[in-house]
């Protein structure tokens, strides 16, 4: 289970170092194989899944009938863009340039542990998300029972 927020620096080659606290967990969860893909819902963010968790997501997305444009769009952004990455001996993974460019991720980024996956945000997009508050009119029925 991944959780927490870590400021990350992307090196000149486009690599990010997996935080030390997560390295053993990543090794156990997926034998050091992560899948990088786009976040189809929010700009400025990539998703990194352990490979086994990704395969379940991939299969669910591919099972959607592709006669609907929204399904094809989801398949394009998630499955079509998915790339397997493996940490090197120093715990760094190479993020594809196309993914970094599309998400606007440059030198500074934020890695969030979101339970079953990581989210990698550009620093600017993350700040914009964090600065937004949830308005009373946005609270869903599902949120009403939360005791935060």
From TrEMBL:
GO CC annotation terms, alphabetical: cytoplasm; nucleoid
GO biological-process terms attached to the record: cell division; negative regulation of DNA-templated transcription initiation
MF terms (GO), sorted A to Z: DNA-binding transcription factor activity; transcription cis-regulatory region binding
InterPro entries tied to this protein: MraZ (IPR003444), MraZ_C (IPR035644), MraZ_dom (IPR020603), MraZ_N (IPR035642), MraZ_sf (IPR038619), SpoVT-AbrB_dom (IPR007159), SpoVT-AbrB_sf (IPR037914)
Positions of the SpoVT-AbrB domain: 5-53, 82-125
Keyword set includes Transcription: yes
Subcellular location: Cytoplasm, Nucleoid
Pfam families documented for this protein: MraZ
KW Cytoplasm (keyword) present: yes
Highest taxon listed in the record's lineage: Bacteria
Protein family membership: Belongs to the MraZ family.
Assembly: Forms oligomers.
Record-given protein name: Transcriptional regulator MraZ
Organism: Arenimonas metalli CF5-1
Lineage: Bacteria, Pseudomonadati, Pseudomonadota, Gammaproteobacteria, Lysobacterales
């Amino acid at each position: 289970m991944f959780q927490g927020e870590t400021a990350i620096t992307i090196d000149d080659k486009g690599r990010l170092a997996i935080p030390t606290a997560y390295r053993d967990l990543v090794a156990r969860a997926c034998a050091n194989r992560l899948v990088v893909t786009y976040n189809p819902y929010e700009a400025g963010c990539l998703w990194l899944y352990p490979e086994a968790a990704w395969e379940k997501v991939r299969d669910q997305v591919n099972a959607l009938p592709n006669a609907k444009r929204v399904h094809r769009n989801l398949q394009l952004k998630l499955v079509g863009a998915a790339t397997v990455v493996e940490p090197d001996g120093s715990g760094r993974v190479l993020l594809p340039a196309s993914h970094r460019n599309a998400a606007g991720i440059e030198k500074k980024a934020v890695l969030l542990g979101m339970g079953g996956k990581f989210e990698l945000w550009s620093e600017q997009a993350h700040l914009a998300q964090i600065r937004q508050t949830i308005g009373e009119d946005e609270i869903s029925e599902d949120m009403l029972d939360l005791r935060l």
